[in-house]
Amino acid sequence: MKKVGMILVLVWFTVLTACAQSSSDRGDGKNIHFLYNFSTKSLDPHVDTSYVPLRAGITETLVRLDEENLTVAPWLAESWKGEDGRHWTITLREGVTFHNGKEMDAESVKASLERALQESIAIQNALKVDTIEVEGQYTLRITTKVPFPEFVSELVNPNVSIIDVSEGDIINKPVGTGPFQLKSFTPGSKLELERYDDYWDGASNLDSVTFSFNEDSNARTLALQAGQVDIVYRPEVATLDTLKERDGMKVESTATFRVHQMTMNLQRASLQDVNVRRAVDALIDREEIVDAILLGYGEPAVGPFLPSLPFAPSYEGRRDSGSEAAMKYLEEAGYRLKDGIMQKDGQPLAFTLLTYPARADLPLIAQVFQSDAKQIGIDVTIRQIDTPEEYMASNRDWDLATYSNLTAPRGDAGYYLNATYHPTGALNFSGAAEPELTSIIDELNQTVNPEARAALAEQAADYVYANVLNSFVLHPSTIVAYNENKVINWVTTRSEYYMISNLLDVK
Questions:
Q1: For residues 366 and 358, which has the higher predicted lDDT (pLDDT)?
Q2: Which residues contact 344 (CB under 8 A, 6 or more apart)?
Q3: Phi, psi at residue 227, to the nearest 5°?
Q4: 10 Å Cβ neighbour count for 287?
Q5: Does an H or E element contain 140, and which?
Q6: Which residues touch 482 (CB under 8 Å, ≥6 apart)?
Q7: Is the pLDDT of residue 18 over 70?
Q8: How many alpha carbons lie under 13 Å from residue 31 in its C-beta half-sphere?
Q9: Which helix (H) or strand (E) segment is 77 a member of?
């Protein structure tokens, strides 16, 4: 506990000043100021990995996740059918307009989907679309390249948001169908949104929303305490007790479909030995990290999926953990501790560990791991990066990375398994290419029966665990703090997709 405490002291020693204009001083009607932890320089919904256009209420998808029932629910699509898993008929909702007043019809949706497929290889791999045809004004006929029973659930993906692609500047001003239209965008800083009066599901009572960014959790908390913002996503956990004591301050915490993991670059020579990967896994002190860094707002992870999910394995016979177990695994891999250095054939074992500041707990996890590894003679160099997805996809000069991933945002295991472990997966940063695992995932993609899908997902997760393709640290809770004397109808979602809605209001 002492080592974590010292790390926290160092990190929290400098208190940053929040830099956001007070929403109460705006003087432009009913406004809510929402402060988010990830910034973005692009609002192109088809490639933006921060999903800000959807989260800010600018865009919507054809279907959305029903988070209570873990099922897909209608949104811009009214209904769908595809009995054979390959030929799909999607009926669009009538009476929907884009923010420029144009009607959303089958032609405009087809154009939006085709642009998403053109702009993103990840979307091509996820949707497996062969052809899209228009039938009448509000019907689409979509054929996938192979039978793909979970096709509709992939349409939950924010990168398949529907926009009017005839508009010019999609990067800075996408035109969607959501309850709020974009007034201005300052890349990396904030969005100013205004109510869309003709929103199909009922216009918001708010006049405007400010959606701003700050990647420093202390600064986010201070901005809320100072009344400069109304809602803060992921405030600093060390300040939660103080926030709860303040009059009118509401703190909500909910378990989400997220895991913090130690991603392993399987293309690095040392990590190609499963015993080295087991040693890395054994060095992760999950209980201490949850207690000391998250202050209990989370739970230790064994695999990628929350234990409460129907496709999460039970993981019988878990591996040993701790420094002694790590030493044992390294000895099996041929390493010996000599002169205080873990080495093999005269070469020291050392790792380059990537982390990023937008999730405040990840750099702390990296430092705890670095400290524990040092105790058994392993040198860990921590490198901080800004955009993990871009860096890990483009560079192979790293060994490990603290990374946070949504594992069941569609209410199903298929998304995470395909994205992270299939050779074509957009988030396969470890470079996993395991024929047996790929075969399981391919079978999952063509299986309809829920029980059979759950069994295949468990089989895949067991394979990942047994072969330590990545290591899983914890399942964090999503924490949101807001001024309940002002804000009403805020909902902290498990998927983390849906934030600014037409129901959000002020007293």
A1: 366
A2: 333, 334, 335, 336
A3: 75, 15
A4: 11
A5: strand 139-144
A6: 224, 230, 231, 232, 249, 250, 252, 490
A7: no
A8: 20
A9: strand 77-81
